[in-house]
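hey
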């Protein structure tokens, strides 16, 4: 989801992107979700309370925690570079990707639409693991340039690392971690990068995106359940190759598996639903029983005559039959109570030019995509510049409920498929 072009809190189409905005790089906005503090804390604590003191018992507490924190930051920076590679290659291949978000389970490059061809999907997917692999190799090469050839005995890694300085130690840790990240992402299970590579190959072979997604998603579910079972085994004290054993790492592995399983299932269901909605016009789903408001009406009148007397939270602003924009509950909340009587709706509404609109003949799949991707609750439907209806999440939810027998989702899928609604 791209950055809003105006103050998000006043825009009835969408809500503000969450988390901390770091800035933009090569035209791609970068955000950190607050949940990222969890993984930062875990890496820092695990390294500083166990790994680093074992490798360097002579280091002081301050140095140990400093290197642990730097390792966590370096790892998150590596994930950012991984995701940025997806975004840059995707944009080069014609995709619209305007934002990257790092969160507790890794990173996400937000796509404006599904890739148009299997070659685009393949190029975007494979570059991430290759980037992580390159980072890992570069870290180990840099460590070797500092301390000479690095030969670590898996049975006693501390022996080889004992004489390393903080920078070499950090590089020796970060290199294998990125290589493992690359290998993990290459597992052929959707929505991991390897699953997207598999989907691209299957898509190219069958010329059927839905079937390719179904097969890749099943691979993703199988891998997710392996992670969940491995995580529970670790919790019970069973040594799992590569991952080891223990309550915290086992719980973390199980949570990653749970996240991947849900992502695989919902990705396929959403694509299946989009395909089914391609043949359904927006005009068939939209509702026409909405209340409008005049642009010169005062906010106090909007509250008393509209907001308090109906279940609507968003109102079209119309001058006769001329559609000017939308005004919502959030707009009223932003305004001081004493200003209601002297402020016109026109002053706080979101103008039509800042809104996404649909034609009643557009496929309903386009409405689904915009509602979910933009995190919005409704879309105006215009016919020859005249407002003829509004299509909302609720309209699509009702259609899904009526068509559930045809495999279009299950009870409770609506919110996950459409995302979180805003006003």
């Amino acid at each position: 989801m791209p950055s809003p072009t105006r103050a998000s809190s006043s825009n009835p189409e969408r809500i503000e992107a969450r988390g901390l905005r770091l800035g933009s790089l090569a035209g791609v906005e970068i955000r950190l979700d607050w949940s990222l503090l969890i993984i930062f804390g875990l890496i820092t604590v695990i390294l500083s309370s166990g790994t680093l003191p074992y490798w360097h018992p002579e280091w002081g507490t301050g140095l140990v925690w400093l290197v642990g924190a730097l390792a966590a930051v370096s790892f998150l920076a590596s994930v950012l570079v991984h995701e940025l590679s997806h975004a840059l290659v995707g944009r080069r291949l014609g995709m619209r990707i305007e934002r990257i978000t790092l969160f507790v389970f890794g990173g996400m490059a937000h796509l404006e639409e599904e890739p148009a061809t299997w070659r685009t999907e393949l190029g975007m997917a494979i570059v991430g693991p290759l980037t992580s692999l390159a980072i890992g190799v570069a870290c180990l090469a840099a460590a070797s340039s500092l301390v000479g050839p690095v030969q670590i005995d898996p049975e006693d890694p501390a022996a080889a690392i004992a004489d390393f300085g903080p920078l070499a130690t950090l590089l020796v840790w970060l290199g294998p971690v990125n290589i493992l990240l690359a290998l993990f992402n290459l597992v052929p299970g959707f929505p991991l990068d390897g699953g997207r590579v598999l989907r691209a190959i299957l898509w190219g072979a069958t010329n059927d995106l839905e079937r390719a997604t179904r097969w890749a998603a099943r691979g993703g579910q199988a891998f997710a359940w392996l992670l969940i079972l491995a995580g529970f085994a670790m919790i019970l004290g069973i040594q799992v190759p590569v991952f080891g054993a223990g309550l915290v790492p086992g719980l973390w592995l199980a949570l990653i598996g749970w996240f991947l399983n849900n992502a695989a299932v919902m990705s396929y269901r959403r694509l299946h639903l989009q395909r089914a909605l391609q043949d359904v016009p927006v005009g068939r789903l939209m509702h026409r029983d909405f209340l409008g408001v005049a642009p010169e009406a005062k906010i106090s009148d909007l509250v008393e005559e509209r907001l308090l007397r109906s279940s609507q939270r968003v109102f079209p602003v119309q001058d006769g039959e001329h559609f000017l924009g939308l005004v919502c509950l959030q707009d009223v909340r932003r305004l001081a109570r004493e200003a209601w009587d002297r402020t016109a709706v026109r002053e706080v509404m979101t103008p039509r030019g800042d809104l996404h609109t649909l034609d009643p003949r557009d496929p309903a799949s386009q409405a689904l995509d915009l509602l979910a991707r933009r995190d919005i609750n409704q879309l105006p439907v215009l016919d020859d510049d005249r407002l003829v209806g509004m299509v909302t999440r609720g309209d699509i939810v009702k259609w899904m409920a009526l068509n559930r027998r045809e495999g279009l989702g299950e009870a409770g899928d609506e919110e996950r498929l459409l995302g979180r609604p805003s006003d």
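The chain is about 55% helix and 10% strand. Residues 1-17 have pLDDT under 50 and may be disordered.
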